[in-house]
Specification:
The chain has eleven helices and 16 strands. It is of the alpha+beta class. Helix 10 crosses helix 11.
């Protein structure tokens, strides 16, 4: 019974020279039975030189026939199962990511860098997050720190992915722009995201998965725990423990020590190892240059953003000042109108001239053009005025004989003091307050006429 099959073009791998070189393959196979949903064959392709001979050579045919018979018996034993049984193919996260490259955004590095070492990664770390999470920004900031440590110490053995749990791709793009996300991100609501969340049964966020060979090594939930893990001081030790691997710096030290302690090895292997180390260092340098360029662009964007915010702040401050001045002006005008309204009404004024000059007479007072006019209510003629800018002082004074309500007050100007009486004490206080306010607002120091307008009578 054939469960699944796939064609492999071996000419693609013709560059294999000896048994020290190999290729890891993840072959996606075509299911041939209804009960087989999917099938993936993971294998290591190497070269084993048997014999150089003609295709009709008896030994060559015999050897190939034996291998074919052996492989046939093995495949028959594997495939000899009941049709009602189901087979669970091995899930390969690296293969799924490779097959769905369009579902991955690489903000901090080129897409080539992301997929270059993915197949050989010993650890793949997934961080599930979304903008709707309260501490999403802090999680991404911690993830940026963590990813920088990974790029520095585990160039080819560890890869990190940010898995967006948002509703659409725009939210993810806003997160990348707002927090300068460095690691590759898997788009929300895409095929790859659905495969991952369903396979690992992700039902909550934020969540962090550490995977080795697509199997869960560690899982962390909760924003506080995830941030603490990503910002930890012992990041390299923690990753080494998860994947049973050494950081780049320690592995280099081990290689040097071994080369000094062990017996000399063949020059070809030393050369191959040297080339491999040079490639690793080249990858590190490339990543550092990409990181430098990314940080430079981020700094430029931040400077532009700061400049825009400063300009906006200046404009807003200017608008606030204008509004404040406008409100203050309206307040002053309102108080001025109130003061002008209060300086309007009938008071008793004491005369200063003539035989009956010291008598108290009724006068109607009103404010007009920085002058307090007093008018004879019988003839409706203006008898004089008091220039507000020339007022020296205004205060109450006792007048017990003629003022039982304690409502008398005086207005002093150069050369004269006016004695006035209100109807009651509260009325007097209102007048005094209004006159004092007009005195504060006045900018004229000397009256246009230069004197207190002369009275026509007492």
């Amino acid at each position: 019974v054939t469960l699944a099959n796939a064609d492999i073009d071996l000419t693609v791998y013709a560059d294999i020279k000896d048994d020290t070189q190999y290729h890891y393959l993840a072959v996606e196979m075509k299911p041939k039975q209804k009960f087989v949903i999917s099938a993936t064959l993971n294998l290591k392709l190497t070269l084993e030189f048997i014999k150089t001979a003609n295709s009709k050579d008896a030994d060559m045919v015999s050897t190939f026939s034996k291998d074919s018979d052996s492989m046939g018996r093995s495949m028959n034993s594997i495939c000899d199962i009941d049709n009602e049984m189901t087979i669970e193919s091995k899930f390969s996260l690296a293969h799924q990511i490779q097959q769905n490259r369009d579902d991955v955004i690489s903000p901090g590095a080129s897409s080539t860098d992301v997929f270059k070492f993915l197949t050989g990664c010993k650890l793949i770390i997934l961080v599930f997050d979304g903008r709707w999470i309260e501490k999403s920004l802090k999680i991404v900031q911690a993830l940026n720190h963590f990813y920088s440590q990974v790029r520095m110490h585990f160039v080819t053995s560890v890869e990190v992915f940010y898995v967006s749990m948002d509703k659409d791709e725009n939210a993810l793009l806003e997160t990348i722009e707002r927090s300068s996300l460095k690691c590759p991100a898997i788009k929300p609501q895409c095929h790859l995201s659905s495969v991952i969340t369903q396979h690992y049964e992700i039902t909550k966020a934020p969540y962090m998965l550490v995977l080795s060979d697509s199997r869960v090594v560690s899982e962390i939930s909760g924003d506080v725990e995830i941030i603490s893990t990503l910002e930890g001081k012992e990041v390299t030790r923690m990753i080494e423990k998860w994947g049973n691997i050494m950081s780049r710096s320690e592995s280099n030290v081990s290689i040097v020590s071994l080369s000094m302690l062990h017996a000399p090895v063949s020059s070809s292997k030393v050369k191959d190892r040297t080339v491999e180390m040079l490639k690793e260092k080249e990858a590190v340098i490339h990543n550092l240059e990409s990181e430098k360029l990314f940080l430079s662009n981020s700094n430029t964007e931040l400077e532009d953003e700061v400049t825009k915010l400063n300009d906006k702040l200046v404009r807003q401050t200017s608008l606030i000042d204008q509004q404040f001045k406008k409100e203050r002006k309206l307040t002053q005008e309102s108080k001025l109108l109130e003061a002008e309204r209060d300086i309007r009404g009938t008071l008793m004024k004491r005369g200063v001239r003539g035989a009956t000059g010291r008598l108290w007479r009724s006068r109607f007072f009103q404010y007009e053009d920085q002058k307090i006019l007093y008018i004879d209510p019988k003839t409706n003629q203006t008898r004089g005025f008091i220039s507000v800018p020339e007022i020296i002082s205004i205060s109450s004074f006792p007048n017990p004989q003629q003022d039982k309500n304690n409502a008398s007050f005086s207005i002093t100007v150069p050369g004269r003091t006016y004695e006035v009486q209100a109807r009651d004490h509260i009325h007097m206080q209102t007048w005094i307050a209004a006159v004092r306010y007009l005195m504060e607002q006045s900018t004229q120091q000397v009256s246009i006429r230069g004197i207190i307008g002369g009275e026509k009578d007492d």
